Amino acid sequence: QVQLVESGGGLVQVGGSLRLSCAASGRAVSSYAMGWFRQAPGKEREFVAAITWSGGRPYYADSVKGRFTISGDSAKNTVYLQMNSLKPEDTAVYFCAAALSLGSSWDSWGKGTLVTVSS
């Protein structure tokens, strides 16, 4: 497994931007598929975005396409989620996760970072 620590959450106004970071330790992130998930109050955890290092194609939930961008820096063992044009419905705890590959289970999780979008 890999250890994951998220950072970068906070309070932002509608239309604003935030960049979340996920620092990994234990193994290089380039050997995993990396994903971001979120859980809003009273709701189920949902997929936000994922990236694989072989080919580097990103995947996004429909609700964030065109607004969020997932990227990674293998030299820093860090994955990012750039969030633009934030909406109140983006308010949630955001979690970073790692899987051996897309389609396999997300085995490693961070503790999450809270994003609050105020109107």
**Main sheet makeup:** 7 strands, mixed
Q: What is the rounded Rg?
A: 13 Å
Strand content: over 45%
Shape: globular
In percent, how helical is the residue content? Answer: under 10%
Question: How many beta strands in the DSSP annotation?
Answer: 11
Give the count of helical stretches.
Answer: 0
* Alpha-beta classification: mainly beta
User: In sequence order, what are the helices and strands, one letter per element?
Assistant: EEEEEEEEEEE
Low-pLDDT residue intervals, each spanning 5 or more residues: none
Q: Mean of the pLDDT scores?
A: 93
Kindly report how far apart the N and C termini lie. 39 Å
Can you characterise this structure?
By secondary structure, the protein is mainly beta. Helix content is 0%, strand content 54%. Strands 2, 4, 5, 6, 9, 10 and 11 form a seven-stranded mixed sheet that branches. The chain has a four-stranded antiparallel sheet with strand order 1-3-8-7, with no helix packed on it. A hairpin with a 6-residue loop joins strand 4 and strand 5 (46-52). The termini are far apart. The model has no long low-confidence stretch (mean pLDDT 93).
